[in-house]
Amino acid sequence: MDYEQSKYHIVEQANLYIANHRHYTWFQHSGSVYELDTLKLLDLKGITTFAPLQEFPHLKSLEFGTTNSTLTIPDLVGLDQASHLERLAFVSKTKIKRNIEVIARLSNLQSLGLYNVQQALPEDLLSALTSLQSVSLSKHNYNSSASLPACLEEISITVDGLATLPSIPPATGVKKVSLHGNRCEIDTLHSFAIFPNVEEIKINAPKKLTDLSYVSQLHRLKVLDINFAPVSDLTALDQHPAIEELRLRGSWVEQLEPITLCPALKILYLEKSKLHSIANIRTQCPQLQQLWIWGTKVKDLSPLTDMSTLQNLDVTMLKPKSWDFLATLTGLEVLDLCKTSFADPHLLVELPNLKKVRLANSEVDVASDEYQRLENIILARGGVLR
């Protein structure tokens, strides 16, 4: 290991980083290269130890490589000398030949990006990081750890064909879980038992997920984003105390039954689903603020009448029996009526909070006096009518 040689090449990379980012308005740096708080190492040639990073006392964020590239790191020795580091990410598809375990000695590390690391981890690496709040993992390392640190709040896993989560002791601090990758094979949420206090679950196109029953055990769950899941049964959501946001685009849900009450629900996305009825939505979702049901088979929108909590409504492509309910939605701020049978702007002119309306390809006569009146009202509020 050659400290001075490595220092020379690290400083060279630091100067290159400054030169490449100086033209960005957000980039603020006018002092010594050693005062950088962020550094990207793109070329590791000549760097045999990362110990010189100890001379960068303000360094908080370090990235290796760049997107759409590969990187081999012969040795991570000395990286632990960057003792103030809070964020570490491997942006290139990376292979680390020696001393990957030094990452575990970065005691101030809060965010760790391993989604491009093409190898398994020592089983105790993550659990040793006592300040770690966020980690992203790949197919090569998502199942490496014997346990997760108690401080961890957010985990992201990118694995094609993922069928279940690892069998590890419960990570009670984790609040947010994101599953990326293609061809998700998960058909039930039971493996989320390892995250008993999770508040947000996002799964990319889980096209085999049909069983939501375990949601009833996740009492702190606030956000469930499972667009394109072929879910039809919403029983597990009935009386759920915490769920605030539900994303079920392209699902098989036909109606909101058997939900009797979802007391905290504020955002509901059911666009392009098999939904055909919202019969009791006002009593089922008394706090609902945002509803997207465009591209569904709903013919009767009258259950929305007097739903004053509603702020954002998208009913694109729908042709209900009546649009009279719109005049009662006094809390409405955003409304999308594109490609609908809507033809009467008069229903909207008394809505006190309306600021953004889309009417493209509806049946509204844009030359009518009522349309002009609506346009004047919206524009006076600084809004948009299209």
TrEMBL record:
Top-level lineage group: Bacteria
Annotated InterPro entries: LRR_dom_sf, SDS22/Internalin_LRR
KW Transcription regulation (keyword) present: no
Transferase among keywords: no
SUPFAM superfamilies: L domain-like
Alphabetical UniProt keywords: Leucine-rich repeat, Repeat
Gene3D superfamilies according to UniProt: Ribonuclease Inhibitor
Protein known as: Internalin-A
